[in-house]
Amino acid sequence: MHFEPTRLCRRLYTKTLALTVLIKGILLTPAVAIAGPSGLVPSRDASWHEQVKAAGYVHKTTQVNNVTLSYVEGPDNGPPLVLLHAQLLDWFSYSRVLPALAKTFHVFDIDYPGHGQTKTPANYPMTANQIGADLGDFIEHDIGKPVFITGNSSGGLLATWLAAYRPKLVRAVVLEDPPLFSSEYPRIKQTIAYRAFRTSYTAAAHDHPDDFLLYWIHENAPFFRKNVGPGTPFILTRAIQGYRRKNPGRPPEIALIKDDTVRMMLRGLDRYDPRFGAAFYDGTWNQDFDHAHALQKVTCPVLLMQANTSALPDGTLNGAMSEEEALRAASLLTHGQYVKIDSGHVIDLEKPELFVEKLNHFFFSP
After folding, report:
1. What Cα–Cα distance (Å) separates residue 55 from each residue in 14, 45, 89, 148, 198?
2. Burial letters for 15-53: b for 16+ Cβ neighbours within 10 Å, e otherwise?
3. pLDDT of residue 5
4. pLDDT at 255
5. 225-267, pLDDT tens digit by residue?
6. How do residues 77-119 score in pLDDT, each as one tens digit?
């Protein structure tokens, strides 16, 4: 994912935070620290868990080569649709669109390697070629027919890989704000994302923390204190620890955080493998995966969605792609369409109704 750190952190800061109190080591706030019906899930996301379950989705795992792949599958109500979430998130980031998509598709919402409950060997190569090949084998052997695919951010890069190098498995693709060209070396060094991936790199290459989420908060504590507030790292840490005590085995969904994208990111970081981000930082993720070459190989229909983007005063890219990069990507596609969306990076989470509308129209148009 690509976030401007100051913006991300400031979205954590609300008036509610100022009213926070610590009671017996568990972070509570009067307005939002309310358990869901099960007593396990905070109120902000409880209804979405219920809606996803009511729509018929079930969690499954399968063995794909050396990977234990975790995914959520919906009822067979149409052609197969594969969802590939953004980096740092997991399958639940699609919760706002899953009920609607279940009405017209047979949805496979996948935690690709490095994310969620998917398990990989310690020496698993975190590269587009390896992950793409394993996802292709899953589609071929477990789904068994060509699919529609949509991918957000890094998931969009993987969707591009599949369309280019496993074309018989892909009917059409929606690319949701992927970092095409901008995540390649040396261009990535001119992006906000490169700075964000440094924490992943230090964790994977040097520190090897047992708890990456708390490590991530600790490593970024000076920034939090400066840009959000002096007590922010402490409050986030205690909130996560408190949630874990009450909800063992569940990724944290901190009701204190009002912003859906930030809350989903904290959830995703709980089970994130920092080797994934480290591979972007050192350039190995895109090894032998040239974006321009891949785009030129894609022959199926492609809708390229670009979210809002900007540049910092020093020219650093604050977004997935510059407009020039997005237009270049679209120009290389044989059957490509381009649309600009007034949204943050995770369009399916911020503009779910619009996302579903665009998806249905594109995939089902003659």
Report:
1. 33, 16, 21, 20, 39
2. ebbeebeeeeeebbbeebbeebeeebbbebbbebbebbe
3. 42
4. 87
5. 887 788 889 999 999 999 999 999 999 999 888 889 989 999 9
6. 999 999 999 999 999 999 999 999 999 999 999 999 999 999 9
pLDDT digits (tens, 9 = 90+) for 123-139: 999 999 999 999 999 99
In three-state secondary structure terms, 20 is coil
- Write out the E strands in 2-121: 21-23, 26-28, 58-64, 67-73, 80-84, 106-111
CA–CA gap between residue 361 and residue 366 (Å, rounded): 9
Do 48 and 260 touch, CB atoms closer than 8 A? Answer: no
How many of the other CB atoms lie within 10 Å of CB of 227?
Answer: 17
Task: Map tokens 């005063």 to a residue.
Answer: 313
Among 362, 221, 241, CA closest to 303 = 362
Residue 51 and residue 95: Cα distance in Å, rounded? 8
- What the block records as the tokens of 160 is 């591009």
CB 156, CB 84: distance < 8 Å:
yes
Q: Which of 316, 213, 221 is nearest to 266 (CA)?
A: 213
Indicate whether 223 pLDDT > 90. no
pLDDT at 148 over 70: yes
Beta bridge partners of 22: 27
| DSSP-based three-state secondary structure for 350 | helix
Per the CB < 8 A criterion, the answer to whether 178 and 151 are in contact is: yes
Distance CA 362, CA 162 (A): 18
Question: What sections of the chain are H helices per DSSP?
Answer: 5-12, 15-18, 43-54, 98-101, 128-138, 154-165, 192-202, 212-219, 221-227, 232-246, 260-269, 274-282, 291-297, 323-332, 347-350, 352-364
Distance CA 272, CA 115 (A): 5
Buried-state track 101-119, b at ≥16 Cβ within 10 A, e below 16: bbebbbbbbbbbbbbbebb
Residue 250 structure tokens: 């569940």
Residue pLDDT, tens place only, 33-64: 323 333 344 458 999 999 999 999 999 999 99
Q: How far is CA 344 from CA 158, 194, 224, 264, 352, in A?
A: 20, 18, 21, 14, 12
